[in-house]
Amino acid sequence: MTLSILDLAPIVSGGTAGDALRNTLDLARRAEEYGYRRYWLAEHHFAPGVASSAPAVLIALVAAATSTIRVGSGAVQLGHQTPLSVVEQFGIVDALHPGRIDLGIGRSGQRRAELATDPVAEKKAARVVDGLLIPPPFDWSALARQPRLARQIAALQQPGARTPDFADQIDDVLALLDGTHEARAVPGEGADLRVWILGSSGGQSAQVAGERGLPFAANYHVSPSSVLEAVEAYREAFKPSEALGEPYVIVSADAVVAESRARARELAKGYDLWVRSIRTGDGAIPYPTAAEADAHVWTDADRDLVKDRLDTRFVGPPAEVAEGLRVLRRVTGADELLITSITHDHEDRARSYELLAEAWNRP
User: Fold this and answer.
1) pLDDT digits (tens, 9 = 90+) for 31-44
2) Stretch 220-238: mean pLDDT, rounded?
């Protein structure tokens, strides 16, 4: 099976964090039954509609509720924690579930702090590459300059804390795991963890993953405009390591599957309003119902905020979505796809994953 799952433990409108976490455990058990390869949990903060704020804790719960599927992070934000604390947390989980845990690491915690000083992204036209839509890049600079971002970053770190260079942090993680660091991680040292790097561009994350010979996860569902550059930069930088002899790439995608196109589109309602809440700086709101989504009055500015995410989402009946995902896999050269699906009703979300698994495995 070359499909895996990324779960944000979404809190829906009218629901609670407890509901979301119980749904995550249920979905993980079903994902194992459906044959998905791995089940990853995201790390998000200050989001009323997301319950996955502490991935190591949630990974432990999911691993205990399942028996064979790999479980991991997509991704731990290393800008908010030390390498030692991350290795110790995941070492504890690995000690109870050896050989099943993926430690996915991202630098988004550092990247957000840099966005406010980045030049505005060059506006490029949308293009289609061998059947895959590559939209124009989203300009994060206005959102990154909001005062609330600085307050949030401050709340996630100790006063006066300085985050080291990402490459140095990854080297520390690897050294702590293999026992060559001056500090000892217990549990953690010698843990049978697979370390992944996640990235949204051809920048430092892709470079570090390639140079260290680690597997790489590229973001089509969050940053579709730069997925090809990210994958290319990783492959160009790749050097074989003890962990990996050749490049290995997983690419993420948003998808909603139902028995008919009309039903899938109905289930997919709410996503545009949800993405809008993220990109206006409010943090992901509780995932809206279809009626709540229909009631929103959209402006042209609103639609511009979410257009790239809507245009690159895979929504439809099983065969149609599976074919679209095969195009994504072919164009990016991905070894595996990481699917994230959100609907207001949990049973609809579980059914979406079930239908997709059946279609993907069908000749």
Assistant:
1) 999 999 999 999 99
2) 97
